[in-house]
Amino acid sequence: MTELHLWLRHEARSTERRTPIVPSDARRLVEAGVRVTVEESPQRIFPVEEYEAAGCGVAPAGSWVSAPRDAVVVGLKELPDEPAELAHRHVFFGHAYKQQPGAAELLRRFTAGKGALLDLEYLVDDSGRRLAAFGFWAGYLGAALAVLQHRGRLTAPLTPTTKEELDETLRPAAADPALTALVVGALGRSGRGARVAFATAGTDPTCWDVAETRDLDRRALLDHEVMVNAVLATSPVPPFLREQDLDDPARRLRTLCDVTCDVGSPLNVLPVYDRTTDWDAPVRRLRAQPPLDLIAIDNLPSLLPKESSTDFSAALLPHLLDFGVSGPWGRCLDRFRQACRELGLANE
Q: Which of 51, 132, 235, 281 is deepest in the core (most CB within 10 A)?
């Protein structure tokens, strides 16, 4: 059997401090006979020396492009625009299967180089449940930022922190008025995280899930001051908010956080904005009167990089130890091939 070689790449995005494999789990992989190479990275929350001490090899940032062909390149966020042909198997969140902007070009790069995308969003069990996800921390941070913005305490640019420090800023001050909050998708991972953050902020949110969104009460939705969307649709559904809802003079909604950031996809349940926000400018005003502020940051968990990476790595580890062409990884490969066929691309 060929030795598994995992190549942990540096993240090209400067605000991405997370890692899918933390040093303690890298040690377990090495002890199990897996070869692990870790690229140097100035922003990764764990220094490369900790990986080296765990038995990993070290390589320069971005050197995955010349890694051995059988290496499996592991990351989280988008790849750089070059090379034009991707020859390796890549494990990361590709966002390429729902007609997102740039999706077709990414898949063409893989087919041109005869590589493959093993999208972490589609690493699922037999029932379709995701096996490793950042959802809890995305929801937690989304609700936390929404509360801080609503209370006038969100400062930019955003910087990574710890949960203890964030909780301290979230706890309500005596002068803070009560607020009404809504979590849509409250029973999923992100929804649970949002509920925990709201509880820390002294707020008991209204919780909606499938039953409540099937026959949406938009008047009730607009009567909440803060809304967190934690629904990532997999099939077309009516939008939760429309342009005419934002123009409703009776709207009480003042702060909207879209955790899922499915902007550009035909499955987007919040088609009222056309671009995400970021750490430098985390809030965009969608309406002046009545005011409505949007937070739509697509790497929220990186604001708590140590906690979110540790949880994610623990969930991913058993599947890396069992890496192969069947089971969850086989389903990832099947989904990649299906997406390529839908675009008329050869991928065998």
A: 51
